[in-house]
Amino acid sequence: MRFGAWASFVLNTLIIATGGAVRLTGSGLGCPNWPLCAPGSLVPTEELSYHSLIEFGNRTISGPLLVAALLVLLLSWRVRAVRRDLFAISAVVLGLVALQALLGGFIVWFHLNANLVGVHYAISLSLVCITAAYLVRMSAQPGPRELAVPKPFMILTHVTTVVMAITVLFGVLTTGSGPHSGDATIQRDGVDAVLMSHIHSWPGYAAFALTLALLVWAAARRLRPLKWLAILMAALVVQIAVGVFQARNGLPELAVGVHMVLAALTAAAMTVVVLALKRPAAAA
């Protein structure tokens, strides 16, 4: 179960990196068909370019990812009598993985529609967070849980979570209006990308300030989420630095890809912080 859970988390993170590579190299239509890559062929043909290999590589990861999700579900089913939480989480993961595969087909059919691509990324990011939650719950003692921090601290943590979600949302919209459309023949029209990048940065800095307040509070009171708040703060600092760098240097592809993956890992760290707000109840 532990192997399957870690495989699921790593593969869901990896597919964000490969999906970003597809978009940033203009390989979104490298396989112009779905579920086949080319007419009459599941794999790239000699007539297709290297873009096909990049797109097909991203599709290939979906297979092991689905197997890992199914494995975790089956193993969670065996312990469902005492760990209903694990079975519920694994069922959600498998459902979202299947939805992602179907949505990927629609993205190809609708020629990389920016809104569908944004939803595709948002689901992948959510899967990273949910699989991270599974890892935390898998290692936690089962049974009732109780609040381990002061209530105002809990409220501030949830406010930070909302602000971070808003940051991710505007990040998706910013990318959707930017130059990396996934294929050289597709042009994005709509909101100005420079304006969107500024709007995206505002909740990002707010999330940084709120996380800093939580970190100082947790350090002063030695609260349970302290370790993961420190990890979250480190991830945020790197994420903001990468964001500023890419905005000031013409959105280089590698920096944009790193920014996409870091967003998912930062959101996963925020998820673990939220789960650390509670501990197993003293009385069983």
Automatic annotation (TrEMBL):
Residues spanning the signal sequence: none
The keyword Hydrolase is assigned to this record: no
A Pfam family this chain is assigned to: COX15-CtaA
The protein's annotated pathway: Porphyrin-containing compound metabolism
Keywords from the UniProt entry: Cell membrane, Disulfide bond, Heme biosynthesis, Iron, Membrane, Metal-binding, Oxidoreductase, Transmembrane, Transmembrane helix
Topology relative to the membrane: Multi-pass membrane protein
Superkingdom, taxonomy of origin: Bacteria
Subcellular location: Membrane
Protein name according to UniProt: COX15/CtaA family protein
UniProt source species: Leucobacter allii
